[in-house]
Design a protein that fits this description.
Low-confidence stretches: 202-217, 230-249, 272-281
Order of helices and strands: EEEHEHEHEEEEHEHEHEEH
Largest sheet: 6 strands, mixed
CATH superfamily of the largest domain: ATPase, nucleotide binding domain
Helix content: 25-40%
Oligomer: single chain
Distance between the termini: 19 Å
Shape: globular
Number of domains: 2
Structural class: alpha/beta
Number of strands: 13
Number of helices: 7
Length: about 280
Amino acid sequence: MNVLALDSSTTTVGVAILCDGEPVVERAQTVKRPSSEGLLRLTDDALSAVGLTLADLDLIAVATGPGSFNGIRGGIATAEGLALALGIPAVGVPTLDALAYPHAGRAPLLRAVLPAGRGEVYTARYEGTWADVRVVSDYTVAPPAAALEDLPPGSLLCGRIPAEVAALAERRGVSCAPSLALSATTAAVAVLALRRMDATGERQGGASVADGAGQAEPGIRPLYVRRPGITRPAGRAGIMTQASERQADEIVLQEQERERERERQEGQAGGDPAAGRSGAR
């Protein structure tokens, strides 16, 4: 089986290809602001490197966040568009799961982190080995001290670790995985997607999708953790009526559009994102 994995949820936009379970090529580019731009170009480059075409693919995998709102949405849209055009499944994999997977089994407890802005980090905790790694907490956003408070000495921190988080981890006797290990993140998205396919099975006529809990869903759902600026209002007894839910959806979409516009304006003010590293495995 040939698997194409896409990840534009962080500042490293990447693609990877697995052939019969083995990663054969990976391409990555560091950008100033996360977005899905460049995914198709990197895909063409990766496919050419191993002599494949889009028609040779059997599965599309995509990182679903948490991370950049625009990057997550763009990556999912790209994955679903390719899957629809090619008539093959698409599977979503939480970004934190992919960050944790290469380090599974290296410590009794593992916590993956991503910068979330506002002095906080996205995070989740994991146990197990490569064969049975599992998430044992909620996907959440928290201040660094709160994210590390349940990690005993001897645990391992991985992902994109801010300097202040690394310093706090050191004081607690928690090791930090080197940033070099991030190079295999997109390949991990592909590996975990295959596992989710094995666990949930392929659906008829569309994308077979698994969320963070391994449950099949009718569409790839982004994992934002933190809502963009607002949350949905609840009806009586905390239950939303259909009318209030539609109204809330409209409000959220409007807020998301305003957030995209703010990011676009900030990007124009700061200049075009410069390409960073690009490499193959």
